[in-house]
Amino acid sequence: MVIIVESGADRQTVDNLIDKVRSLGFTPHPIFGVEKTVIAVVGHKTQEKIEALETMPGVQQIIPILKPYKLVGREVRAEPTVISIAEGVEIGAERVIVMAGPCALESYEQFSHIAHYVHAAGAQVLRGGIFKPRTSPHDFQGLREEGIPIAKAVKEEVGVPFVTEVVDIRDIETLHEVADIYQVGARNMQNFSLLTELGKVDRPVMLKRAMSGTIEDLLQAAEYVMVEGNADVILCERGIRTFETTTRNTLDISAVVALKRFSHLPVVVDPSHASGHDWMVPALCKAAVAAGADGLLVETHWRPQEAMVDGHQSLTPSTFEQLMNELPAVCEAVGRTL
Ligand code: PEP
Ligand code: MN
To answer: Residue 203 belongs to a domain with what CATH number?
Structure first.
């Protein structure tokens, strides 16, 4: 349920309400919006407890939330959530954020080269897998621990925030010194113990939709992170499994529209994993921005034909630059900037 606080209630009144919620055995999640303050209340409800809250000073209304997700929904927060990734870089506001880089870090030289390039072309966030979740155990699993000093050095050289996947709870700590955003991959969207641990960290989490996850599954997965106290969750549509074989997955562009309607959280689209084809990525990036995406995740490699992972879907430095030159017009058409 959600407690709508009377407009004009002072901080002490809100604090008293929060204490009361806690004393009744609930977990309060206060949300201080521009227009209204609400307290999302999580826990087992009884009529008696609801009545005890209804009579408290400052309570305008108590609304039950019938959806299976609560904190991620628009009911508790009407305005979009803007997440600060690093100084001067925020997602969910007017500016569309482009996250670019290779699927996996392969060497200092490879990562440094592409990082400088995508940054110069306008990417605001650098991506790159250090721990890779691969379908076959025989495939390259990422540089793993060896990748950390490389990521750290390149990040510092270029001066941009970095998003990287955390595959296992044990790696949350290992990645803490380099990850500005923890990515949860499609294969781990419903790894609830990983989500719960990420709910306790002080960094944004980008949660990718599972290939067979519904929109509601994704929102409930995000709820696992938020309910632990980490409100900085970014949702990512990366294509779902369908009968179509032309593409690696099928980009569900309607998910962007639905997620923006049902949730206040920022939405990123990953056309690289959705399509599996470099030649499709620029058009799908534009479609994603037109549909309301707050960010894009674009795999980019200095020599895609030599990439250890996902070269076929990676843009070259020049096709990435061309995309970055074409995107502003689409952004402008939908009231955004790049
Ligand atoms: C990735 O971003 O490199 C990745 C593995 O993506 P996904 O989890 O969406 O397959
Ligand atoms: Mn990849």
So the answer is: 3.20.20.70
> How many structural domains are present in the chain?
2
75 domain-assigned: no
d(CA 258, CA 94): 19
Ligand 1 pocket residues where CB is under 6 Å: 103, 129, 185-187, 208, 238, 273
Q: Is pLDDT above 90 for 35?
A: no
| Tens-digit pLDDT profile for residues 136-150 | 999 999 999 999 999
**For residue 188, which atom of ligand 1 is closest to its CA?**
8
**Ligand 1 nearest-atom number relative to CA 187:** 8
Nearest CA to ligand 1 atom 8: 185
CATH of the domain at 34: 3.30.70.1140
Question: 155 CA to middle of ligand 1, Å?
Answer: 20
Q: Which atom of ligand 1 is nearest to the CA of 186?
A: 8
Ligand nearest to the CA of 241: 1
CA distance 318 to 325: 11
Could you tell me the residue range of the domain that residue 54 belongs to? Answer: 2-63
Domain annotation covers residue 176:
yes
Give 217's contacts (C-beta < 8 A, 6+ positions apart). Answer: 189, 190, 210
Record the pTM: 0.95
- Given pLDDT bands bounded at 50, 70 and 90, which one contains residue 122? very high
Q: From CA 149, how far away is CA 153, in angstroms rounded? A: 6
Q: Hey, how many other C-beta atoms are within 10 angstroms of the C-beta on 332?
A: 11
